[in-house]
Design brief:
The chain contains 8 helices and 9 strands. By secondary structure, the chain is α/β, with parallel strands linked by helices.
Length: about 250
Amino acid sequence: MSSLKDKIVLVTGASSGIGEACVKKFSAEGARVIMMARRLRRLKELSRKLKNDSYPVEIDVRESGAVERAVGALPPDWADVDVLVNNAGLSRGLDRFQEASLQDWEEMIDTNIKGLLYISRAILPGMVKRGRGHVINIGSIAGHEVYARGNVYCATKHAVDALTKGMRLDLVDTPVRVSTVDPGLVETEFSMVRFRGDRDRAKAVYQGYKPLTGDDIADAVVWVASRPDHVQIAEVIIFPSAQASAAVTYKTIE
């Protein structure tokens, strides 16, 4: 196991869910965490709860110029990022392809694909120059299997899978590692965002079985990041016990 103490970890989508859980887990391991998200108030509240140093940054990863400026403006003692966790992502709607909203499609593509590209492109040159670093992308089982009405969301997560593999190929002659952690059903704000605040519809997604939590995924992310330098965990797929594939779950709770 490699120590994470005093390493600089940048987490996108850090204000809730898996991102927030990753911030807490890395901080507990002694890492210094750069937290990026659109909701600065939440980031500041989270920062006050952490025992270790943290650096909140208000940003929308869909805006390439904003990403470039934010990364360029990091103070010198925060600029040398050791671990990048590309967590920012979302789903919108659950509609048939021919009935879906173009706005929903654009938001998913801009966040899940372009946001990951913008942050990675800004951070990776420094990692390569310093001869150390680790990119951990938060993918999904939707990046391996397409489910009904998942169309464009699944396409964006397939893109994350392809980009992860592409990064690994292009960085093979460097010490920089590239990994993906791909969850199944995790109960976070994900379904609330997908259904635009419809609590009943969001809650129904997780009824009948015990889903994963953000902490479950954060545990895996920290484990991946803490392997010895010569060990590169390429891919981790995590399901709750009652899930067998993207669309197959078993009701275990009445």
